[in-house]
Amino acid sequence: MFNYTFYWSIVWEKFPELLQGARITLEVTILSMIFGTALALPLSLWRRAREGVGHAFATGWVELARNTPALFQVYMVYFGLGSLHIHLPSYFAMVAALTFNNAGYLAETFRGGLNSVPPQQLSAARSLGMSAFSAYAYVVFPQVFQVVFFPYVNQLNWALLNSSLGMIIGLRELTGATQAAQSESFRTFEFFIVAACIYYVMAKAIETLAQLASWRLFGR
Amino acid sequence: MSRQSWGRGALVSLVLAAFAGGSAAHAQSALDKIVQSKTLRCGVQLDYPPAGFRNQKNEPDGYDVAYCKDMAKALGATAQIIETPSSERIPALVSNRIDVLIASASITTQRALTVAFSQPYVSYTNVVLTRNDTGVEKFDDMKGRAIGGVTGTTTEQELKSLYGAWKDAKGSYTGYGSEAESYLALTQGKIDGIILGNASAGALVRSGQFPTLVIKGEAPTPADLCGIAVRKDDRDLLSWVRVFVWSQVRTGRYKELYSQYFGGSEPPSLSVPGVDF
């Protein structure tokens, strides 16, 4: 056992900065989930189509997003686009990279959910005179959401933790703020412990809210 | 706080003494252990050339590495170089994976609450690094521009306070995860300037990997004096390290190592005029 005295007062001094970082972490996570979901819906439909440009595009997206490290994706959006003279600020680059990652995973989650809805439901909706869009929006996807609800919350947690990669491209989210604070004072243990607790609280809060939403929406 | 921790400390020592019994009346000090085991474990940052890097044979090399080897020799031990990236320096020291930290750690009062520092063993000055197409000629030309640095470094803290004094609405500051990202961001034009130690800047420009980067004058920051860190309790080791640092300068070895790795014929002073360390 090592001989170390914890100095918590230094952490409380810096606590507002950590909370400011946590706020950016949450913002990036939520924005990237909203955009990721919006992109994953058409991607999942294209993935189900057997052929065509849409299918090839969606497959390429899913393959890249799921089979390369998130760190690589973050680097590509920030420095990869930078080498083409497209300069995104750290914040937008991080939202874009996480959106790309989320959309890839969610497309597959939704595809699984779509497979669980009997195809006759779509035919029935269309034969009642609904457009393809309304049929998906009012008949198919509401059922898909119920099936994929918990994998979806998983992805939300995953995005929350992945957002910590923003630190390397200059985004002062929770991990960036922690890194700065620990390097100034060398109180590495204290700051990393507190950061881990804040991540845990945020993840737990997301889980609890999801559980409440699930009861409210699906009655279970 | 102090009274409480004294109390707890006393309690812990009582319990420890009870367990240790009479056999080990004197616990082995860190210095004794190094001398007896003939191994000196040094934590060095190997992503910070020319102070610490891997040479073409993929062996650790650099000023800090050479300093560690000298230290081991003086102790009659072999040097064991343990790579400690910036944020792992203190955990490595506290969890006893290394004996001394020779990793260009700037001495600050805040950090000295956590570790014990020797007197300065190397000194850097900060210079302005920019691209050859930015038109930045001196430090003040960076006003109104996007500038950057490495998160949590002392250089960043000094740059940010100077930047704050400009009260500059047009400019921006971005702190990156490590040196590598800040160089890349500068090369790509995401930022127009960074300040960094003269030694790293020189090594960077000489490496030829970044042909567009140029050094433009010094930054108005105080000399960045770095110390060797040991655990706060290892007082015997600290006093030996202090003698060693003194001896390196006295024997001319400091000058020799400095010109070998950083260039120049006259190494910078390791003291602040008018005050002892």
UniProtKB/TrEMBL annotation, chain A:
InterPro entries reported for this sequence: AA_ABC_transptr_permease_3TM, ArtM/GltK/GlnP/TcyL/YhdX-like, MetI-like, MetI-like_sf
Record domain ABC transmembrane type-1: where: 22-210
Membrane topology (UniProt): Multi-pass membrane protein
Matches recorded under CDD domains: TM_PBP2
Keywords: Amino-acid transport, Cell membrane, Membrane, Transmembrane, Transmembrane helix, Transport
Signal sequence region: none
PROSITE patterns linked to this entry: ABC_TM1
Primary residence: membrane
MF GO annotations: L-cystine transmembrane transporter activity
TM helices/strands, residue ranges: 20-41, 135-153, 191-210
GO cellular component labels: ATP-binding cassette (ABC) transporter complex
Subcellular location: Cell inner membrane; Cell membrane
NCBIfam families: HEQRo_perm_3TM
Family: Belongs to the binding-protein-dependent transport system permease family. HisMQ subfamily.
PANTHER family reported for this sequence: L-CYSTINE TRANSPORT SYSTEM PERMEASE PROTEIN TCYL, MEMBRANE COMPONENT OF AMINO ACID ABC TRANSPORTER
Protein name: Amino acid ABC transporter permease
Species this protein is from: Bradyrhizobium rifense
UniProtKB/TrEMBL annotation, chain B:
Keyword field: Signal, Transport
Classification of source organism: Bacteria, Pseudomonadati, Pseudomonadota, Alphaproteobacteria, Hyphomicrobiales
Keyword Protease in annotation: no
Signal peptide: 1-27
A GO biological process held by the record: amino acid transport
Family: Belongs to the bacterial solute-binding protein 3 family.
Species of provenance: Bradyrhizobium rifense
Entry annotated with the keyword Ribonucleoprotein: no
Domain Solute-binding protein family 3/N-terminal: 39-265
InterPro entries tied to this protein: Bact_solute-bind_prot3, Solute-binding_3/MltF_N
Gene Ontology CC entries for this record: extracellular region; outer membrane-bounded periplasmic space
Record's protein name: Transporter substrate-binding domain-containing protein
Pfam family, one: SBP_bac_3
